[in-house]
Amino acid sequence: MKGYSCPRCQNRHLYSVRRGKKRCKNCLYEWKPKLGGLGLTRRNWYKVLLWFLLGHSIKTICRQTGISHYSVEKAVMVTRKVMARDVPRVFSGTVEVDETYLGGQKKNKRKNQLRKEAESKRGFGTTKQPVFGILTRHGKVFAKLVDDTEAIDLLPIITRRVKVGSRICSDTWRAYTGLAAKGYVHRTVKHGEREYVRGKNHINGLEGFWGYLKRKLAAKGGVRRKYLPLFLGEYVWRYNYRNMDTEKQVKRILKKITDSSG
Ligand SMILES: [Zn+2]
User: Fold this and answer.
1) Domain with 12 in it
2) How far is the CA of 235 from the centre of ligand 1 (A)?
3) Number of domains forming the structure of the chain
4) Are 163 and 91 in contact (CB under 8 A)?
5) Which of 19, 109, 134, 258 sees the fewest Cβ atoms within 10 Å?
């Protein structure tokens, strides 16, 4: 556990003194740690996290905890940042890869298809945001917003995140054709045949995650593009830890917030 360190000398050996303050054993500097950079006590952080992880809105969290809207909103944003960083680093074994587009009703269209539509319909569909995802058969997801869905966009992410020798399932999109040459066992499933599970070679897990993500974003009534990475981080996290009980989820996030606090 990382825990707190002295803001003056970075020493990690501290006394706990009155009113939640810490004192450095080395330089004797005294300060009040700000959990997550906010003036919320640990008890209040706990309350906010509990209500947030149970899926309640900022408005409800304020009403239930009596904490100001300003603080709750800040705390939720800090939480989303922590969630976005708490993702599996490397994948191995059998994994699925796939991409999709967020922000609109035209699902699962490649950028070149959209471009053609944009040309004929004047800008319609050009604002869609491509997302790339990796999923293990244990149900853990990694997802990232990408500029485009060509090999140059996707292969570097795969080689960074998936161990060489792993078995990768994808559809027949051309961006994935170079996978075998990179040292992976590559299995493809054709578009339109996704409902037929051909042994282990399917990408049903990611299809499930995309559905979940789109339902969540739709329920928000749309999310501003600059906040999309944070919301993506939140929903990936919620999906990855969906089988963990809420109290454990709260403790996990609280520990991450503590570790990143000065
Ligand atoms: Zn010190």
Assistant:
1) 1-33
2) 38
3) 3
4) yes
5) 19
